[in-house]
Amino acid sequence: MEDIGFGKSIEYNNLTEEGLYRAIMDVLEDPRYKEAASQRGDLLMDQITMPMDRAIRWLEFLMRHPGENHFHSPVHHLAWCKYLLLDVILFLAVSFFLAVAVPCKLLRWIFGPSKADQRAQKLEEKKRQ
After folding, report:
1. Three-state SS across the chain?
2. Contact call for residues 8 and 27 (beta carbons, < 8 A)
3. Any idea where the domains of the chain sit in the sequence?
4. Contact 6, 37 (CB under 8 A)
5. Dihedral (C-alpha) 45, 46, 51, 54: value to the nearest 10 degrees?
6. At what angle do helices 17-29 and 31-45 cross, to 10 degrees?
7. What is the rounded distance in angstroms from the CA atom of residue 81 to the CA atom of residue 39?
8. Exposure check for the chain: N or C terminus, fewer CB within 10 A?
9. pLDDT (tens place) for every residue of the chain, 129 residues total
10. What's this model's pTM, rounded to 2 decimal places?
């Protein structure tokens, strides 16, 4: 804001009561800030039509054309599965599952069964015999 002459900025780390008071008084007393604010306001207000005139025009248009559906959102014409984004949710769920399951299976295949698993298998084999 200081770059465009629109106000003063104070870093949070340097914020003190006296510094804040000085910054506020500088902005209030220096006419440059008022001129910059006035210029910015003129830019914002420089429109072909005023907002109230546009609102009145659209209200009159809607009264002249009752029942027109071209102002409705296209979301009203979506199937429920597209409206609820079920395809996106399914894609994300499958992606998450694959991102977790594939590396786990790959690591198990690389490192093989653990020694505890091998011991458990041997015990089961002895019990069966």
Report:
1. CCCCCCCCCCCHHHCCHHHHHHHHHHHHHCHHHHHHHHHHHHHHHCCCCCHHHHHHHHHHHHHHCCCCCCCCCHHHHCCHHHHCCHHHHHHHHHHHHHHHHHHHHHHHHHHCCCHHHHHHHHHHHHHHC
2. yes
3. 12-64, 74-128
4. yes
5. 180
6. 70
7. 50
8. C
9. 677 777 888 899 989 999 999 999 999 999 999 998 898 888 888 888 888 999 999 899 888 888 777 777 888 888 888 889 999 999 999 999 999 999 999 988 888 767 777 788 888 888 877
10. 0.39
Name residues whose C-beta falls within 8 Å of residue 6's C-beta, 6 or more positions apart in sequence. Answer: 33, 36, 37, 40
Write the single-letter amino acid at 73. Answer: S
CA R_g for the chain = 34
- Whether 23 and 8 have beta carbons less than 8 Å apart is answered as yes
> The tokens of 86 are what?
């079920």
